[in-house]
Amino acid sequence: MVLSEITITKAIIDRFSRKFMECIDVDTAVVGAGPAGLVASYFLAKAGRKVAVFERKLSVGGGMWGGGMMFNEIVVQEEGKEILDLFGIGAREYEPGYYTADAIEAASTICSHAMKAGARIFNCMSVEDVMIREGRVIGLVITWSPVQMAGLHVDPLTVTAKNIVDATGHDTEVLAVIARKADIHLFTDTGKILGERSMWAEKAERLTLENTKRICPGVYVAGMSANAAFGGPRMGPIFGGMLLSGKRVAELIAAGR
Ligand SMILES: Cc1cc2nc3c(=O)[nH]c(=O)nc-3n(C[C@H](O)[C@H](O)[C@H](O)COP(=O)(O)OP(=O)(O)OC[C@H]3O[C@@H](n4cnc5c(N)ncnc54)[C@H](O)[C@@H]3O)c2cc1C
Fold first, then answer.
1. Distance between CA atoms of 38 and 63, rounded to whole angstroms?
2. 73: three-class secondary structure by DSSP
3. Is the pTM for the entire model greater than 0.85?
4. What letters, b where the CB count within 10 A reaches 16 and e where it falls short, cover 43-66?
5. Of 32, 80, 97, 178, most Cβ neighbours within 10 A?
6. CA-wise closest residue to 237 among 117, 62, 88, 79
7. Which domains does the chain have, with CATH numbers?
8. DSSP label of 188
9. Model pLDDT for residues 90-142, shown as the tens digit of each residue
10. CA-to-CA distance for 127 and 219, rounded, in angstroms?
């Protein structure tokens, strides 16, 4: 058989277009493929929801690949280990209550499970705006990340979703655009983004779960974005809260809460 470059090109364009077309109207759109977003997409897909994940970077995994300060090991506590166990990621006890796992194994395995469960991940796509109708966020405005990087004057496209998860980490990018452009009152003490506080691992791990919730009609926050939205502290390279937050947001969406 003689390989045809044209067939290769057609195969990529055709397959990608079909995949993308299937995801322009979804049950849940997750913004950010860090640990929280990936775990959320796994549990939602597993529950039969149609899930699309939009990730700005070429690679998925967010801040997980680099462990702490690029030492590529992550730490989880007892509760977080249950999620690693579920995915078959090797976790080794360091001291009672502290477990470590290889950051590369963790990121790649969680991503693989999310995809095999049925989540669709679109990398190199950035969410730059939202669509709002009657006080509810009903969709996302997306563009290719390289378009943003090059500052090109190119219009974006849109996707609609019944639920949106802001799992964009420290910058709460979906909420930031809502706060900037709409009069929507967020379900925080002030109605605005409260902003992340300084490092406090123990408190942050607990608050990450408590703060994982619906933040305005149509939008949930998970992972570091949840703490930044509700004024919780950062926690550094301990990842149990991120993993559990992904699971929690999926449970909330499944329960319609
Ligand atoms: C570059 C970087 C540096 C970090 N530095 C620290 C640190 O110094 N201290 C600390 O405590 N934690 C830091 N973190 C976060 C730390 O790794 C977290 O504890 C953990 O990774 C957070 O998990 P998460 O799933 O909430 O978000 P993240 O792991 O941060 O993942 C969020 C993902 O969302 C994507 N994203 C963001 N905005 C958009 C958008 N508009 N459209 C599409 N995708 C988007 C990002 O590319 C990223 O992949 C850092 C994370 C990153 C990505």
1. 12
2. strand
3. yes
4. bbbbbebbbbbbbbeeebbbbbbe
5. 32
6. 62
7. 36-65+117-255 (3.50.50.60)
8. S
9. 999 999 999 999 999 999 999 999 999 999 999 999 999 999 999 999 999 99
10. 14
User: Which protein residue's CA is at the shortest distance from atom 9 of ligand 1?
Assistant: 236
* Residue 235 near residue 170 (C-beta atoms within 8 A): no
- From the alpha carbon of 241, which atom of ligand 1 is closest? 19
Distance of CA 199 to the CA centre of its chain: 21
Task: List C-alpha distances in Å: 170 to 2, 3, 200.
Answer: 50, 46, 15
Q: pLDDT tens, 239-255?
A: 999 999 999 999 999 99
Q: Is 161 exposed, middle or buried (0-12, 13-18, 19+ CB in 10 A)?
A: buried
Is 246 a pocket residue for ligand 1 (Cβ < 6 Å)? Answer: no
Sign of CA dihedral 197, 200, 204, 66: positive
Q: If you measure from the C-alpha of residue 2 to the centroid of ligand 1, how many angstroms do you get, rounded to a whole number? A: 44
Report the alpha-carbon distance of residue 79 to residue 25 in Å, rounded. Answer: 34
